[in-house]
């Protein structure tokens, strides 16, 4: 049947009809808020414990006390989880701060879990915020990254996060074999029940720019193309995800999100695991800048973007818009 019998507009006529046939739902409980916990932020102006991040309006580097405050607010909005990134004051060649039991992330996990136990705490497992050179692994003499030597550091880091009380650990380094190494280390240390959210398909992206400024993790030389994926490759993304499933990943992630909708769908179809999409810093910054300039309406743009990621197949969305989105979703109801 075609026009005039078929009229697609019949079911678009009222809000009631549109709601009745809406295919995709977005809830605050599907969102994860990334949070930067910083050693230096304790000394921020006026004792606020908050340092503005110029490239990410509305996002701040937080002291421990401010992080607990933020976690409380986040939980109050019905958001599922926070994802912690550490911004340490001292760095070294190996990135040993990453597995320091008294490191900023480990301290923040303990403080947040104690103050707001119902909020899930996910930790980013990577070395780039802790290495003096800013790369995600251990360097060889020739400045290339030693994959296998890095696995032990990542596993130690993940175990230290689990010991601090992290609900989920999320490796983002893109070393081969890291999910298996982390699973084995967690199991060996009594954390067999701690899930791994693998950043399986993490692309070498221009959209991480603001994050690197926020976390102070810009590589001192070169770039990350020898370990992060080529943005041109979708089949390879599926292979990466399947390998991580084989190594024991409980959830897989695609990152960035906006330009990778079909990768999210392909990974979902191939793995049947819960899939997370990371709506990254550059994607956030673009929306903020355009909204600030009056070029787009922030609220409808953000809700459209987040809904599109759910439609693409993401079960969970990591986004810096999480708090605003949760407020807007609550108002809609
Ligand atoms: C650490 C890490 C990065 C991001 C998440 N974990 C930076 C990078 O790989 O350079 C990016 C997050 C964002 O841009 O919002 N490896």
Please give a quick description of this structure.
The chain is an alpha/beta fold.
Approximately how much beta-strand content do the residues carry? 15-25%
Q: Over all CA atoms, what is the radius of gyration?
A: 20 Å
Indicate how many domains the architecture comprises: 1
CATH architecture: Alpha-Beta Barrel
- How do the SSEs run, as a string of H and E? HEEEHEHEEEHEHEHHEHEHHEH
Q: Which spans of ≥5 residues are poorly predicted at pLDDT below 50?
A: none
The dominant shape is globular
Kindly state the number of beta strands: 12
Kindly provide the name of the CATH class.
Alpha Beta
The small-molecule ligands in this entry are: ligand PBG
CATH topology: TIM Barrel
Percent range for helical residues? 25-40%
What is the helix tally?
A: 11
Largest sheet: 10 strands, mixed
Structural class: alpha/beta
How many angstroms separate the termini? 36 Å
Mean pLDDT: 97
> What's the name of the CATH homologous superfamily?
Aldolase class I
Question: How would you characterize the overall build of this protein?
Answer:
The two termini are 36 Å apart. Strands 1, 2, 3, 4, 5, 8, 9, 10, 11 and 12 form a 10-stranded mixed β-sheet that branches. A two-stranded antiparallel ribbon has the order 6-7. By secondary structure, the chain is α/β, with parallel strands linked by helices. The protein has one domain (26-332): Aldolase class I (TIM Barrel, Alpha-Beta Barrel). The chain is globular. The protein has helices at residues 15-20, 64-76, 104-115, 147-164, 178-188, 209-215, 235-247, 261-271, 281-292, 298-312, 322-332, and strands spanning 31-38, 50-52, 60-62, 81-87, 120-125, 138-139, 145-146, 168-171, 197-202, 251-255, 275-279, 316-319. The protein has 11 helices and 12 strands. Helices cover 39% and strands 17% of the residues. The structure holds ligand PBG.
């Amino acid at each position: 049947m075609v026009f005039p019998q078929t009229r697609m507009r019949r079911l678009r006529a009222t809000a009631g009809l549109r709601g009745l046939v809406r295919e995709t739902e977005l809830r605050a409980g599907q969102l994860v808020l990334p949070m930067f916990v910083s050693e230096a932020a304790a000394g921020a102006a006026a004792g606020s414990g908050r340092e503005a991040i110029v490239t990410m309006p509305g996002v701040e580097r937080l002291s421990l006390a401010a992080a607990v405050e933020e976690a409380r607010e986040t939980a109050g909005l019905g958001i599922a989880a926070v994802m912690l990134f550490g911004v340490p004051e001292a760095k070294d060649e190996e990135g040993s701060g990453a597995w320091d039991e008294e490191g900023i992330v480990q301290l923040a996990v303990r403080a947040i879990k104690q103050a707001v136990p119902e909020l899930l705490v996910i930790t980013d497992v990577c070395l780039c915020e802790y290495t003096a050179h800013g790369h995600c692994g251990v360097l060889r003499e020739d400045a290339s990254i030693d994959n296998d030597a890095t696995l032990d550091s990542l596993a130690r880091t993940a175990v230290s996060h689990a010991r601090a009380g992290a609900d989920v650990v999320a490796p983002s380094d893109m070393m081969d074999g890291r999910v298996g190494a982390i699973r084995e280390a967690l199991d060996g240390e009594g954390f067999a029940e701690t899930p791994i959210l693998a950043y399986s398909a993490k692309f070498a992206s221009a959209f991480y720019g603001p994050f690197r400024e926020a976390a102070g993790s810009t590589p001192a030389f070169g770039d990350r193309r020898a370990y992060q994926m080529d943005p041109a490759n979708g089949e390879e993304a599926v292979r990466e995800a399947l390998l991580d499933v084989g190594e024991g990943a409980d959830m897989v992630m695609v990152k960035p999100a906006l330009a990778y909708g079909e990768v999210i769908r392909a990974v979902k179809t191939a793995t049947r695991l819960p899939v997370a999409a990371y709506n990254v810093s550059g994607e956030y910054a673009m929306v903020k800048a355009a909204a600030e300039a009056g070029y787009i309406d922030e609220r409808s743009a953000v809700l459209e973007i987040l809904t599109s990621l759910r439609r693409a197949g993401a079960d969970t969305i990591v986004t810096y818009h999480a708090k605003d989105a949760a407020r807007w979703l609550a108002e809609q109801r």
